[in-house]
Amino acid sequence: MSNKLITPNPSRRAVLGGIAAGGALLTTGLGARFAQAQSSAPIKLGFQLHRTGIGASYGRWYERTATAALKVLNDAGGINGRPVEILFEDDGTDPKRGAEVVEKFATQHKCDIGFGTLFSHVVMGSAPRAGELKLPYFVVSEGHHVASGALNRWTLQPGITDVKSQVLSMAPWVLQNLGKKVTMVFPDYAFGHDHRDYFTQAVQANGGEVIAQVAIPPTETTFTRYFPKIPRETEVLYHVMVGPAVLTFVKELGEFYGTGARPEIFGFIDSLEAVNIASPGLEFLEGTHFWEGHPRYLQEGASEAELAYRAAVGVDDTGASVSDPADVATYAHMFSVWETLFAVKAGMEAAGYQGPDDRQKFVEAMEAIAAFDEGAEHPQGPKVFNGKTHQAFGLQSISKVEGGKLKRVHQTTMEDGFYPDEVDYTTMSF
Q1: Which residue range(s) make up the domain with 86?
Q2: pTM (predicted TM-score)
Q3: What is the spatial distance between Cα 60 and Cα 251, in angstroms, rounded to a whole number?
């Protein structure tokens, strides 16, 4: 039996009377207070979370980071004087489920925006649906798909740099300091293909040569059979791997080379995210180098903003959870969640955002933002935001494993990562 309240259809006179009364209400102080009550309703942000699937290690820390950032935001008054809520939905790190989650945000939860997506194939599967639903969609994936023009005007990436910018800024240092003949090992999907394409271009532009490319399925669980494809003349082994088997990847790579001669090794920290460098079998990493978006180990001279951020997300000086040293954070990437939330705040306040009817105005306000200063809202560092390409640019770190810790040995400049625009989203229709 249903307990739903059923009311009779109102008469025409009652409806007209109600409209007239409502009009009178809006001309009084009661009307003003009614409108104020409406505008003080929470702003709802839908977070597309990789709680399960190959992105689960990231999803766990992305949820913690978003929750910590939300507390800081609301303690400071929210956005436009309104509290903010985040609704988390698991997409299984799956493109099809990703699109379903986006639709759920827009039609069921009535969210103001969607954000949080990391893995590139999920972004590519979800962004078109966000565009159809006219839901602002903020991604933190690093993929070049946003800045390349492959998506739509509703999709933005203001909280993290893309792979193309990252590799362009670091390739000169790698070639000058480690070697000229490079073999690349990368995951065989959109994110890995960005590395393959743009690092290869950067190597050639700086007088080097990529002599082999080894693509590995991102769901692979053992890697030994791929390593014999690495040519003996390789001077630099460039690796980036993702998924739950990253510890297996680095262990098997060490077993492959053993104690004999090996090339210089330059990896993206993705191959070691959520993995303790002191794990047995990783001793061979000593002396190797990694890209880090945000250094995992607390560096000398860290800013007050960095210290406050670590405390807020519950991470110690080694990059592990303060409550469990075995729980290592995805620290090089998760800052993007924090910074994206505060970028959303900046855009909504610039737009005077009140609700879904202001979504277009909000996107236009985001496109007008030129930069984000380093500070409590952007602890990783300053950002330049290109409103035409919807892409952020920032600083990159190269770290070396020394004494079982990651120590930054080089930081790029902002300009090192710039490249010509490939799209102007501001000319596209909504």
Answers
A1: 40-162+334-394
A2: 0.89
A3: 23
